[in-house]
Design a protein that fits this description.
Blueprint lengths: L2 H10 L2 H5 L12 E2 L11 H12 L12 H11 L6 E5 L2 H12 L5 E6 L4 H9 L2 E6 L8 H11 L3 E5 L11 H10 L3 E5 L20 E6 L1 H5 L5 E5 L1 H7 L10 H12 L1 H23 L5 E2 L6 E5 L5 H10 L2 E2 L1 E2 L10 E5 L3 H15 L1
Parallel strand pairs: 1-11, 3-4, 3-5, 5-6, 6-7
Antiparallel strand pairs: 2-8, 7-8, 9-10, 10-13, 12-13
The structure holds 4'-deoxy-4'-aminopyridoxal-5'-phosphate (PMP).
The site of 4'-deoxy-4'-aminopyridoxal-5'-phosphate has 13 residues, from α5.
Length: about 350
């Protein structure tokens, strides 16, 4: 790059953006992919045929329904939404996180979340130019309620994100502690239930109880990561405002039709998530039985585990050399030092991962 161009980049790209490192997604090559919390199962061939038949009827020359009415209706039914609540759709829940932050963005305002958590809360807040405050989780990755109270009182955050279950730790926070945070927060509290399909609890029934509570869901973890469809659920007064930050036609016509089709065949996805929940238990036990490995209990479709000190980077590399890609969190430091995160795959994939891990530990 010429000096002149570098100078212009430095002059015109905002410092907050230049300081960021891009969200890194490694190329899995031919490795078994257990790094991104995807559902490992495809659909039966007969279902694929029926889906392709449905796609034939789509008019690619027309814009999609901008409000995705048919899909929103079906999602509402599928989710047992409390009466009076509405749904806003995003191109993945990532886009809804961005829309939420855009809707409150004003200089000097703060976004707050317990940490470690999903990194996009921080990244999008910083890209949009808001202050981001992370409040360290306590023992066992529990919410540190006194620290949360203190930070909320000090920062008066416009937005608080609580991932429930939390990524990358996999646990559900204590319900009473969550309620205390919702009650203490002056602004919006978003309970991000990306992993709801794998968890034994949800805040969906609490939506009507609190003025400031919104719920985030996604179809990504239940088997439709390729479609990119996230849902923000809450009172129409909030959603009508946040909707104004949405780009027109953000949910493309193939996603609308495919998601509707998938919801008509929900039993297939439900069976797959049930298998993942069952296999999560087996994977946890197998990890716990390995010497020096400490897996953390999970209510999601992944398991965080700690390795003997100083070995995480080499073992992560060793797994990849043996054909298994998982997520290395050691670089994040703090509570995640020496930790890796594995997505629950098919029984065969889990076995291959465990064998590769054993071989790395030997
Ligand atoms: N929230 C949480 C807690 C997540 O872990 C993720 C994905 N890693 C997302 C939201 C984003 O999911 P998507 O954009 O695929 O809906």
């Amino acid at each position: 790059m010429t000096d002149g161009r570098a100078e212009r980049v430095a002059r015109w790209i905002r410092p907050e953006v230049r300081r960021l490192s891009a969200y890194h997604v490694p190329d899995p090559g031919s490795a078994i992919k257990l790094d991104a919390m995807e559902n490992p199962y495809r659909w039966p061939e007969t279902l694929v045929d029926a889906w392709l038949e449905r796609l034939r009827q789509v008019s690619l020359n027309r814009y999609p329904d901008p409000a995705a009415r048919a899909l929103r209706r079906r999602l509402g039914e599928a989710m047992d939404m409390p009466p009076g609540m509405d749904i806003l759709l995003g191109n993945g829940s990532d886009e809804l996180i961005q829309m939420l932050i855009l809707a409150v963005a004003e200089p000097g305002r703060t976004v707050l979340a317990p940490e470690p958590t999903f990194v996009m809360y921080r990244m999008l807040a910083e890209i949009i130019g808001l202050r981001y405050v992370g409040v360290p989780l306590g023992e066992g990755f529990a919410l540190d309620l006194p620290a949360m109270h203190e930070a909320i009182e000090r920062e008066q955050p416009a937005l608080v994100f609580l991932a429930y279950p939390n990524n990358p730790t996999g646990n559900l926070f204590d319900t009473e502690a969550m309620r205390a945070v919702i009650e203490a927060a002056p602004g919006i509290v978003v309970v991000d239930e990306a992993y709801a399909a794998f968890a034994r609890d949800s805040f969906v029934d609490a939506l009507a109880e609190y003025d400031n509570l919104l719920l985030l869901r996604t179809l990504s973890k239940t088997g439709l990561a390729g479609l990119r469809l996230g849902m923000l659920i809450g009172a129409p007064e909030w959603l009508a405002e946040i909707d104004k930050t949405r780009l027109p036609y953000n949910i493309n016509v193939l996603t609308q039709v495919s998601a509707e089709f998938a919801l008509e065949h929900r039993a297939v996805l439900d069976e797959q998530t049930a298998a993942i929940r069952r296999d999560r238990g087996l994977l946890f036990e197998a990890l716990a039985a390995l010497p020096g490995i400490e897996p953390f209990p999970s209510e999601a479709n992944f398991i965080l585990f700690r390795l003997p000190a100083g070995r995480a980077d080499a073992i992560h590399r060793g797994l990849l050399e043996r054909g298994v890609l998982i997520k290395n969190l050691n670089g994040a430091g703090g509570a995640l030092a020496d930790c890796l995160r594995v997505t629950v795959g098919t029984p065969e994939e889990n076995r291959a991962f465990l064998e590769a891990l054993q071989s790395c530990l030997a």
